[in-house]
Amino acid sequence: MKAKERMAIPRQQPQELGVAFRIKNFEEVTACFDEETAIREANRCLQCKKPTCRQGCPINNNIPEFIALLRDRKFEEGYWKIRETSSLPAVCSRVCPHEFQCEGACVRGKKGDAVAIGMLERFLADWMVTKGKNLMSSCALPKDKMVAIIGSGPAGMTAAFHLAHEGYPCTIFESLPAFGGMLSVGIPAYRLPRAIINAEFDALKNCGVQVENNVVIGKDLTLQQLKDEKGFDAVFVGVGAHKSRKLGLDNEDMKGVLHGVDYLRRVNLGENLNLGHNVVVVGGGNVAIDCARTALRTGSQNVFILYRRTKKEMPASMAEIHHLEEEGVTIEFLAAPVQLHGENGTLKRVECLRMELGECDASGRCRPVVVEGSNFMIEADAIIPAISQDVDHTADSGTEFEVTRWGTYIVDPETLQTSVPWIFSGGDSVLGPQTAAKAVYQGKVAAESIKRFLEGASLKEGREVRDLME
Ligand SMILES: Cc1cc2nc3c(=O)[nH]c(=O)nc-3n(C[C@H](O)[C@H](O)[C@H](O)COP(=O)(O)OP(=O)(O)OC[C@H]3O[C@@H](n4cnc5c(N)ncnc54)[C@H](O)[C@@H]3O)c2cc1C
């Protein structure tokens, strides 16, 4: 096919569940491409000599090659091409903010629509599952040094994946009853079905990775005990950022105030939580959008979001904003809560202020400034502040760790070794709340460092590591 013909193919659109049906359940909203649609979309790729899409991908997936294999109907080979760099293709293809990563860097996006790289990756990953293919490459014979992994999120899963493939017996310690970190207790199932996480989990277990749920490191066992009493030779700490940031308003502990990731964790762990008719969500990122869409699905009728900037500044992905608006959630731009009003300890109204955009920083992001006297009131049965998350430091209790002023762990950016030589860390606990793909990348980097540490080799020699902390 000539380049001109490829250019003439429009970006293929996935089928989606109708709004009236989907807001009543947690079924996956976006369907996978069928074979012919996937091939048509793959034909849009220009196979650039300098594939900028790869640079845009935090884990450097070989995008042109897997698309070329897909195009030739070599689906299994295409999947294993992705697996060379990614431990979680079925997850990343669904949740990565592609427009800011690979698709944002796609040459075709300069004059039209980027190639739907995420959907093509998903097609290959789902094809493997549908056809019942083995997702695990061969495992190595067990070595005599053991690694403890704290946290079963994408960073911990990836570290375990790579270390297990090197033959290092790994045990993942997870404080919650569920496995997968924010993939299971944050991101709702209508975006990431739990069967996908379970399939990855089974693949890990097949390679001998042990998982101990309901073990809180720092309480039930300390990091030092893992080393001194349980015989682990190195530890990877991938505890994420699970502490919801507060608004800092009076009465923030009253009934009807539920903080973003706490709310999602409760729903995702199976609690039946109907928040009432009117729900206000505060924030402009994916967490805020997930809270709003989840509230709709658990029975609230009038859900809206307060965001203190404009749509242009919203950090959430465009697809998420589109789905949110389709589902009838209103976004009140340039507005922020200023006071919570309750009766008998229960929230009744949220007092808000209008904002306007003031000075902009070097990146073009403008500071919201209060419009004095612009107070207005919203009736609310519940408010969900979803403005960010911090690292919970339970895991490092009793261990002298160096942390930044934001509370994230200080690590060597090339090796992810902490100030305690046998402890490594990566993912949200180092980067702050970020993305699954960045956690996957750091899990992989840490695994390589841990391997070298256990072998007594140089942690840095001959390595090229992306600094995601920039
Ligand atoms: C609602 C929501 C939506 C998101 N949407 C997206 C998206 O669309 N795309 C995207 O790329 N990213 C998204 N993210 C971000 C992404 O999920 C995270 O960046 C990623 O999961 C971080 O991986 P991690 O392994 O570092 O930590 P986590 O996934 O947070 O996993 C950490 C694990 O450590 C466990 N843990 C914590 N403390 C202890 C302890 N003391 N002992 C034992 N275990 C412990 C936790 O229970 C958790 O299971 C979203 C996050 C949230 C909250």
Task: Report on this structure.
With 470 residues, the protein is α/β, with parallel strands linked by helices. It has three domains: 3-130, Fumarate Reductase Iron-sulfur Protein, Chain B, domain 2, CATH 1.10.1060.10; 147-242 and 391-455, FAD/NAD(P)-binding domain, CATH 3.50.50.60; 245-389, FAD/NAD(P)-binding domain (3-Layer(bba) Sandwich). The chain contains 17 helices and 15 strands. The chain has helices at 3-8, 19-22, 35-42, 52-56, 63-71, 75-83, 89-95, 117-130, 154-165, 182-185, 194-206, 223-228, 260-268, 286-297, 318-326, 428-431, 436-455, and strands at residues 147-150, 170-173, 210-212, 234-237, 243-244, 278-282, 302-306, 330-332, 335-343, 346-360, 366-370, 376-379, 382-385, 389-390, 423-425. The strands form four sheets. It has a five-stranded parallel sheet. The chain has a four-stranded parallel sheet with strand order 8-7-6-13, covered by helices on one side. It is globular, with a radius of gyration of 23 Å. The chain starts with a helix and ends in a 15-residue tail after the last helix. The model has no long low-confidence stretch (mean pLDDT 95). Flavin-adenine dinucleotide binds at residues 95-97, 150-156, 173-176, 181-183, 186-187, 216-218, 238-240, 242, 261, 264, 286-287, 290, 392, 394-395, 427-429, 434-437, 439. The site of flavin-adenine dinucleotide has 42 residues, from helix 9, helix 10, helix 13, helix 14 and helix 16.
